[in-house]
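Schema walk-through. Below, the input block comes first and the output block second. Nothing else is stored per chain. Lengths vary across the set, and this one has 341 residues.
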Amino acid sequence: MIFPAIARRRNWLALALSVALSLIAFRADSDTSLLGGGSSFSEPLYDAYAPVLAQDTGTDIRYLTVGSGPAFQQLGAKTFSFTSTEAPPGPIVFDVLGTTQEGLQMVPTGIGGLAIIYNLRGAATDIPISQKTLADIFTGKLNNWQQVNPRLPEQDIRIIVRGDFAGANYILSEFLNNVTDGEVEVRPGPKWWQDIGLQPFAARNLDTGIAASVATTDGAIGYVQVGYALEKNLETARIENALGNFVRPGLPAIERAASLAEYDDNFMPTGLVNPQGGYPIVGLNWMVMYEDQDSASTAASLKAMADWILTTGQTLNPDQWFAAIDPDVAAMARAAVDRNL
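--- output ---
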């Protein structure tokens, strides 16, 4: 048996080693190389961006999937040049970074969806779940699938949650917060389900961990990035949206939801939480970087990367199951990066 404290220490040692090796590799051409990292939710975007960005601009990026929390720590230590997150930074992150919102540049990159996956032997595929029912499941009020629908098998509901700091946690808790009138707090970490006293069947890290547990557990329900669910042919539920329609997770429904968002000067969206149309569980990814850079060459590389992502890079988003940023918003973000860095 590996005790939790030992497991956490091993995870941190593995992270430290990974970052150290990446730093060694990137020092060879530091003027045009950027090391960053963050959420697994947006990893497909950065994996798709990297080779084309290098070909088009000569700027190399290496993206480490370490989670948003550890990534902000690495940004604060000046190990990372940028981070990626679906959870906008708040007071705790500002303390870690030694700055305020005004000292950070937020760059919107794409809007993705969170699929609800399940494993229920003897049930039809593509089952519909209302907003209230989904909230009741993830707050522990329902414990049998026949409470979801009398036609479903009499099987215990076994909830699989993310046990790490993850964009998926933030997106789901933000949706549940809206549906439950604040009963669930918006959190990127496991506190959203711990604070309401939920006793999950299992807590796992990353989409791979959630998917593996759901696949091997009859009656299980969990949540993963839409693209991951569809590419792995996982069973996904149709989720009721704010208009009362039961919507399959997919790119057209995500794009419809994304089209309803409006943005403030810091590119923080309104209208994306349980939007009035399209797929109801979606979230925005940002790149986050310091406005004041220690190196003019790093600032130039960050500008080149952001400019490319907000133009050519947006054409790659749909293949990764992400909606592109509205072109007018992307243009404003490009201008902000050019002005502030």
